[in-house]
Design a protein that fits this description.
GO terms for molecular function: triose-phosphate isomerase activity. Pathway: Carbohydrate biosynthesis. InterPro entries: Aldolase_TIM (IPR013785), TIM_sf (IPR035990), TrioseP_Isoase_bac/euk (IPR022896), Triosephosphate_isomerase (IPR000652), Triosephosphate_isomerase_AS (IPR020861). There is one protein chain. The chain is of the alpha/beta class and 253 residues long. The chain is built from 12 helices and 8 strands. It has an 8-stranded parallel β-barrel with strand order 1-2-3-4-5-6-7-8, surrounded by 4 helices. The structure holds 1,3-dihydroxyacetonephosphate.
Length: 253
């Protein structure tokens, strides 16, 4: 199965109503490749999800940035997978490194969240990635394999999973991984999937890159054979997000 290019915009904890309207207007007016070529998902903070969904062009979709690990109930401040389904939010980002680092989300907890979100019918962008210290000590693959294993052990339907490789040292730092660095890890991850999950799933699962992707570096990254798209932070709040979506055309040429 061909892997359709995937571009996600992770707005993180940013935005006012006015800013949201502005971003959506830019996206709605943009001429981008068709849905057959690229899948586009924007992920605003929870409070703007329904607002964004109501304004956003119908060929783009919406993702939440997190959800609770199990069925909803007495969990003050949390948002359940059931609620996202109820609001027809199709996607959720799980295991972002900011949550792993700042909110102590463990591999196991992330795996459990992925399992629960999938069981409710959500599609999941599962994030993995090593810190600078881990990279410098040569443990990048061991770290991302352990993170992937915790997720893979809980996945029943890989059609609904996108794996986002986001090296922590590249997030919000302006220090993008070189195309060769990204390709190396993506290729190893695909090999890992091949050996531990299966050949068909390794061939069809999208592995996207995140970490200081912008309008200037996206094409070169997109040209790498195992880079199937992007998860974009800062640049997803700017008009250049449209250029990043257009990087999908690199795969067609
Ligand atoms: O964390 C990211 C996307 O989830 C990447 O953030 P930046 O693109 O701002 O580096």
């Amino acid at each position: 199965m061909a892997r359709k290019f995937f571009v996600g915009g992770n707005w993180k904890c940013n935005g006012t109503t006015e800013e949201v309207k502005k971003i959506i207007t830019t996206l709605n007016e943009a001429e981008v490749p068709s849905q057959d070529v690229v899948e586009v998902v924007v992920s605003p903070p929870f409070v703007f999800l329904t607002f964004v969904k109501s304004l956003l062009r119908s060929d783009f979709h919406v993702a939440a940035q997190n959800c609770w690990v199990r069925k909803g109930g007495a969990f003050t401040g949390e948002i359940s997978a059931e609620m996202l389904v109820n609001l027809s939010i199709p996607w959720v980002i799980i295991g972002h490194s900011e949550r792993r680092a700042l909110l102590n989300e463990s591999n196991e907890f992330v795996g459990d969240k992925v399992a629960y979100a999938l069981s409710q019918g959500l599609k999941v962008i599962a994030c993995i990635g090593e810190t600078l210290e881990e990279r410098e000590s040569g443990s990048t693959m061991a770290v991302v394999a352990a993170q992937t294993k915790a997720v893979a052990g809980k996945v029943t339907n890989w059609d609904n999973v996108v794996l986002a490789y986001e090296p922590v040292w590249a997030i919000g730092t302006g220090k993008v991984a070189t195309p060769a660095q990204a390709q190396e890890v993506h290729c190893e991850l695909r090999k890992w999937l091949h050996e531990n999950v299966g050949g068909d799933i390794a061939a069809s699962t999208r592995i996207i890159y995140g970490g200081s992707v912008n309008g200037a570096n996206c094409k070169e990254l997109a040209a790498q054979p195992d880079v199937d798209g992007f998860l974009v932070g800062g640049a997803s709040l700017k008009p250049e997000f449209v250029d990043i979506i257009k990087a999908a055309m690199v795969k067609k040429n």
